[in-house]
Amino acid sequence: MVKSNPEGAKWPTQVDIPVNDEWEETPEQPETDEHENAHIPVVMAKEIKEMISHEVAKAQAAALSHLKEYFGNIISQTIQEELNANLARRVKEVTYSDFSACDPPSYCRESNPFLCYRRIQDVEGTFDTSKCPEKLRVKFLANLLRGHAKEWWN
Predict the structure, then answer these.
(1) Residue ranges of region Disordered (predicted)?
(2) What H or E segment, with its residue span, contains residue 21?
(3) Angle (deg, nearest 10), helices 134-142 and 113-130
(4) How far, in Å, CA of 54 to CA of 59, rounded?
(5) What is the pTM of this model?
(6) Whether residue 101 sits in one domain with residue 67
(7) pLDDT tens figures, 28-43
(8) pLDDT tens, position by position, 85-125
(9) Cα 92–chain centre separation
C-alpha cells in the first residue's frame, strides 16, 4: 500500500514492503561474515524499512514522471504525423479551372497606371480566393494576357 505525502507532494512517501518476501524463503547460505547473523533491534529494522520504502516511492515517482513525459511526447508526435498525413491526402492541388472559376480579369494593353494597379489587385485577390500556390501563379497569370501583352510574354 502506498501512503501519500502529508505536505502535498506529488509522489507517495512510503511503499509497504511485504514481510514474507522471497529472500526469507531461500535456503541459508554458509556464513561468510561474522556480522551477517547479527540481530538488528526491531525499532531500527522498522526505521530501515520505512527509509527504504520512502526512497523506493521517490524513485518510482521520478521514473513515472519521466515515462509520462516520454510517452506523452511519442503520442503527440504520432498524432501530429497522422494529422499531417491526413491533411496531405485531403489537400487538392489547385487547377487552372479552379483559378478561372474566380473570374480573374484579363489584360490587353492598359496605359493608365491606376487601372493597371487595380487589375493587379484583382488578380492577387483571385489568387487568394482560389488558394493558388506561389509555384503556379506565373503560369496562371500568363494565361490572362491578351493581344500585344501575350505576344510580348511569349
Answers:
(1) 1-36
(2) none
(3) 130
(4) 9
(5) 0.40
(6) no
(7) 555 555 555 567 778 8
(8) 888 777 678 888 888 888 888 776 777 888 888 888 988 99
(9) 25
